[in-house]
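HTH tetR-type domain-containing protein
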Amino acid sequence: MNDQMKDRRYRRTQNQLTKALIDLLKNKNINQISVRELSELADINRATFYLHYKTPHDLLIQLENNIFNVIFTSYENHNIMAQYDFLLSIYKCVNDNHELLLVLLNPNSGSTFWDKLSNSIKKHHNFLWSPHFNYLSKEELNYFGAFIIDGYISVVKFWLLNGMKESPEEMVELSKRFQYKILPSN
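Tokens:
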């Protein structure tokens, strides 16, 4: 079998598993989802599931990590003070993964994705922001980072919960307007 056929089969299996997991997470905690019911809903053999994962939780972690990789690759590739491209890549990532991210907002899902996202960005922000806000003490910079980062995350959550009526580009413009009200101009 050629690599292209294997690749297509792999992607199809991943898509089926992702859709099935999202459907199950709408009503169940990740710890309540069995491999059997996930495999049945995805219409794949359990052996196929076990070729890729040990548990449904492993699948969820991989999906979360894929989103983290997109976000942090974008985060590292853009100047935090020139945020348009960075914010646009974030909003596009959310748009592309909205079904999964929406179910992860449900506290019953058992996911800690949003907390992990916030904490991960906070760990990275000092490195990128410190030179631009050298008038703040380290403690003030930590508070400032928490304020800004959790504010952005709350805006993303609100956008998801309200049906994502705005495009990613419109969300960037809205975010920039908010940002200009609270950040000093340089």
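Residues 138-161 form the longest helix (24 residues).
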